Automatic annotation (TrEMBL):
<feature type="transmembrane region" description="Helical">
    <location>
        <begin position="38"/>
        <end position="56"/>
    </location>
</feature>
<feature type="transmembrane region" description="Helical">
    <location>
        <begin position="170"/>
        <end position="190"/>
    </location>
</feature>
<keyword id="KW-0472">Membrane</keyword>
<feature type="transmembrane region" description="Helical">
    <location>
        <begin position="210"/>
        <end position="232"/>
    </location>
</feature>
<feature type="transmembrane region" description="Helical">
    <location>
        <begin position="88"/>
        <end position="108"/>
    </location>
</feature>
<feature type="transmembrane region" description="Helical">
    <location>
        <begin position="123"/>
        <end position="149"/>
    </location>
</feature>
<keyword id="KW-1133">Transmembrane helix</keyword>
<dbReference type="Pfam" id="PF11750">
    <property type="entry name" value="DUF3307"/>
</dbReference>
<protein>
    <recommendedName>
        <fullName>DUF3307 domain-containing protein</fullName>
    </recommendedName>
</protein>
<keyword id="KW-0812">Transmembrane</keyword>
<dbReference type="InterPro" id="IPR021737">
    <property type="entry name" value="Phage_phiKZ_Orf197"/>
</dbReference>
Length: 234
């Protein structure tokens, strides 16, 4: 896999998932194209392309990604409804990735910097895989299992489930990359033990099924991404 593609994808997930606060999303959905946060978001994506390449020679790619990102996000803001947010989320991300791939195939001319580990494709691949398993995967899981959330709200720390999921996926990522598959089984068993008491005392079938769906989905994505990174030869 070409290192330039990994850099472009890395810039995308940084701009869409790590450097876009929730209040930006709320404002954009509220006032749509009149939101200044929308244009700041687009400017950030353009800047990130320059940053990951450490060069201004990629201005064509940055401009194409910026303009297309605005058009895709604008369409999402104008046409999505409360009951179509899930569809628009995946469509939005698919279109952004498609533009990145087309941009990479059509215009990339090898603009990069030549020094040390920064140019090691494996480093970029490992960073991309690790970041993919944090906030992006947490948001994807949340979107998928929203319909299964039990009506009774449980007492827990704010965002605790999100951060527990991120930590477990990163641990699985590290275990598989370092060829310690037995540790993955240990992690799953440990989480099951901690969860067993809560589920047993709660005695709610819906809550048990909800936790199992979230856990298995989280572990499945983590294993799939980890094995994918392991078997990609660059």
């Amino acid at each position: 896999m070409e290192i330039a593609l990994i850099k472009l994808l890395l810039a995308h997930i940084l701009g869409d998932f790590f450097l876009q606060p929730d209040k930006w999303v709320v404002e954009k959905e509220r006032i749509k194209l009149r939101s200044g946060k929308l244009y700041l978001h687009i400017a950030l994506h353009i800047a990130l392309v320059f940053i990951v390449f450490l060069s201004f020679d990629v201005w064509k790619q940055a401009l194409i990604i910026g303009v297309s990102h605005y058009m895709i996000d604008a369409a999402k803001l104008l046409f999505q409804k409360a009951n179509t947010k899930k569809v628009w989320f995946f469509a939005d991300q698919a279109l952004h990735i498609a533009v990145i791939i087309i941009c990479w195939l059509s215009f990339y001319e090898g603009a990069s910097i030549d020094f040390g580990f920064v140019q090691n494709p494996k480093v970029w691949l490992y960073v991309f895989g690790g970041l993919l398993l944090t906030s992006p995967t947490a948001i994807i899981i949340k979107v998928v299992i929203t319909r299964f959330i039990p009506s009774r709200s449980s007492i827990s720390l704010q965002n605790a489930g999100k951060f527990i999921g991120i930590l477990e996926r990163l641990l699985i990522y590290i275990f598989i990359l370092t060829n310690h598959l037995e540790a993955v089984g240990f992690l799953l068993a440990a989480k099951s033990i901690f969860r067993f008491g809560d589920l047993k005392e709660g005695n709610e079938l819906k809550l048990t099924e909800y936790v199992l769906i979230g856990t298995l989905l989280s572990f499945g994505i983590a294993v799939a991404v980890s094995l994918g990174v392991t078997y990609i030869h660059i």
